[in-house]
Specification:
Elements lengths: L1 H9 L3 H31 L4 H37 L3 H28 L1 H7 L4 H16 L1 H16 L3 H25 L4 H24 L16 H33 L3 H37 L3 H28 L1 H6 L5 H14 L3 H16 L3 H14 L1 H43 L6
Helix pairs in contact: 2-3, 2-8, 2-9, 2-11, 3-4, 3-6, 3-7, 3-10, 3-11, 4-6, 4-7, 6-9, 7-8, 7-9, 8-9, 10-11, 10-16, 10-17, 11-12, 11-14, 11-15, 12-15, 14-17, 15-17, 16-17
C-alpha cells in the first residue's frame, strides 16, 4: 500500500495521478455536500423560516471551526507532503503528531470560549427574537462538540496530504451516513427540532473522527502517528503556521464576511436571512467539487515541489485547471437553468424560494471563476508560498469581499449584496493567477525530470 502511494506521487502519469487522487477527494466533497445540506434539508421540512434562519446564522461558526482546524490540518498537511518529497520521515512523523496534538488542545479552548461568547455573537448578527433561542441552542451543541469536529477535519487533511484519498473518503462516508440517519431521528422522532440537528451533526463527526484515529493507530498510514517521540520544536510550528495561518485566515475572513452579510440581510427580514442561508448551502455543491479537485492535487503539488520535480508539478497544476473548468461548464448550466428547483428541494416557503432563486442566479457567475481559483490557491499552499498564500487568503473573503458587500448593498440593496461574492472571487482569482505565473516562470525548467 505504501509503495503504491509513492508510485502515484512520483511516477504515475500526471492525468492518471490527478484522477486517482481527485476522484476520492471529489466523492469526499460530495459526501461533505450531503453533510452540509442535511440539516438544512430536514429542518426545511418543518417549514419554519425561523429555524432555517437559525442554521443560516450559525454558518459562520462552522467556518470558524474549520479555520481553526485548517491551521494544523492544511498547514500540517502542506509541510507533511513536502517532507515526504524530501524523504525526511522523522520530521514527517513529528509534524503529524504535533499537528494532531495541538489541534486537539486548541479545539477544547475554542469550544469553551465559543460557548461563553454565544450571546455576543447573536447580538453581533442581529438575531431577532424569533430566531435567537433556536440559534443559541444550535450553536451551544455545535460548540460542545468542537473537539470531535476540529479533530476530524484535521485528521482528514493530514491523511490526504500523504495521498490516502480513499481512506479520507471512507471516513467522510461514515460521518455523513450517521448524520443522515440521526437527523430525522433527533429532529422529528425526538421532537428536538434544530437542537436535534446540532446533536446529530456532532455525533456524525465523532464517528468519522474515530475511523481516522483507528486507521492511524492500526499503523496503516504512510506516516505513523505516535506522541512518544513528538518534539514541540519551533521550526516545525513555523513551517505549519506559515501555510496554516493563511489558510485559516481565509476561513476566518469567510466567517467575518458571512456574519456581515447575514447582519445586512437581517435588515431586510428573517426571510432574507433564511434565503441567503439556503442559497449558500446549495451553492456548496459546485464549490465543494472544486475544493475536492484542489485537495486531491495538494499532495501531488507539495510532493513534486519538495522533490524538486517542477516539470511534473507544472503539468499537475495545468491539467487540474482544465479538469476543474470542465466540471464548471456542466455546473454553470445546471444552476443557470434550475435555480428555483434547487431551492424548492429544501424549503417550500414562497418568499424564501423567490429570494433564494435571486441569490443563486447571482452566484452562477462565480462557478467558473471558483473552478480556477481553488486550484491556484491550493497550489500556493502546497508549495509553501506563505506570503502569496496569505495575501490571497486575506483578499478572497476580506480585502475584496467585505468592501464589496458593504458597497454593493449600499448602492443596490439586497440584489447588490448577493453579487459581491462573484465579484470578489473574480478579483482574487486574477491575483492568484498572477502569483502562480510569476512563481512558475521563476522556476523555468529547473528540476524537470
Amino acid at each position: 500500500m505504501k509503495a503504491n502511494k509513492l508510485y502515484i506521487l512520483e511516477t504515475m502519469p500526471v492525468p492518471r495521478a490527478i484522477m486517482h487522487l481527485a476522484i476520492p477527494s471529489v466523492l469526499s466533497m460530495m459526501v461533505n455536500i450531503l453533510y452540509n445540506l442535511t440539516d438544512t434539508f430536514f429542518i426545511g421540512k418543518l417549514n419554519d423560516p425561523y429555524q432555517v434562519a437559525a442554521i443560516s446564522i450559525s454558518m459562520p461558526l462552522f467556518l470558524l471551526q474549520m479555520a481553526m482546524a485548517g491551521v494544523f490540518g492544511i498547514g500540517g498537511g502542506s509541510y507533511l507532503s513536502r517532507l515526504l518529497g524530501k524523504k525526511d520521515m522523522d520530521s514527517a512523523r513529528n509534524t503529524l503528531s504535533v499537528s494532531v496534538f495541538t489541534a486537539a488542545l486548541l479545539s477544547v479552548v475554542l469550544g469553551i470560549l465559543g460557548i461563553i461568547l454565544i450571546p455576543f455573537f447573536l447580538n453581533m448578527v442581529s438575531a431577532s427574537g424569533a430566531t435567537y433561542e433556536y440559534t443559541r441552542k444550535y450553536m451551544y451543541y455545535i460548540l460542545l462538540g468542537s473537539p470531535v469536529i476540529l479533530l476530524k477535519f484535521t485528521l482528514v487533511q493530514l491523511l490526504r496530504a500523504e495521498g490516502a484519498a480513499k481512506e479520507a473518503m471512507i471516513g467522510l462516508f461514515i460521518g455523513t451516513g450517521m448524520n443522515i440517519v440521526l437527523d430525522p431521528l433527533f429532529i422529528f422522532a425526538f421532537g428536538m427540532g434544530v437542537t436535534g440537528a446540532a446533536v446529530a451533526t456532532v455525533l456524525g463527526n465523532g464517528c468519522g473522527m474515530l475511523y481516522y484515529l483507528q486507521y492511524y493507530l492500526r499503523k496503516k498510514s504512510l506516516v505513523r502517528l505516535s506522541f512518544k517521540h513528538m518534539k514541540l520544536q519551533w521550526n516545525c510550528y513555523k513551517e505549519i503556521l506559515m501555510i496554516g495561518i493563511p489558510a485559516s485566515l481565509s476561513q476566518v475572513m469567510l466567517s467575518i464576511g458571512s456574519t456581515i452579510s447575514y447582519r445586512l440581510a437581517a435588515g431586510y427580514s428573517d426571510h432574507h436571512v433564511a434565503s441567503l442561508g439556503v442559497a449558500s448551502r446549495v451553492f456548496t455543491i459546485p464549490i465543494f467539487i472544486f475544493i475536492g479537485i484542489s485537495i486531491g492535487i495538494q499532495a501531488l503539488v507539495g510532493y513534486t515541489y519538495g522533490a524538486g520535480n517542477y516539470q511534473r508539478m507544472k503539468e499537475t497544476i495545468r491539467t487540474s485547471v482544465l479538469i476543474s473548468l470542465s466540471f464548471s461548464a456542466v455546473l454553470t448550466l445546471l444552476f443557470a437553468l434550475f435555480p428555483r428547483e434547487l431551492i424548492i428541494i429544501f424549503i417550500k416557503d414562497a418568499d424564501i424560494v423567490e429570494i433564494g432563486t435571486l441569490t443563486l442566479r447571482a452566484y452562477v457567475y462565480a462557478i467558473p471563476i471558483a473552478a480556477v481559483g481553488m486550484i491556484l490557491m491550493t497550489s500556493l499552499q502546497a508549495m509553501g508560498k506563505a506570503l502569496p498564500a496569505l495575501i490571497v487568503a486575506l483578499s478572497r473573503q476580506g480585502i475584496m469581499y467585505i468592501p464589496a458587500i458593504l458597497i454593493l448593498n449600499k448602492l443596490f440593496a439586497f440584489e447588490g449584496l448577493v453579487f459581491a461574492m462573484p465579484l470578489a472571487d473574480l478579483l482574487t482569482t486574477i491575483l492568484s493567477a498572477t502569483f502562480i505565473l510569476v512563481i512558475l516562470k521563476g522556476m523555468g525548467t529547473c528540476g524537470a525530470r
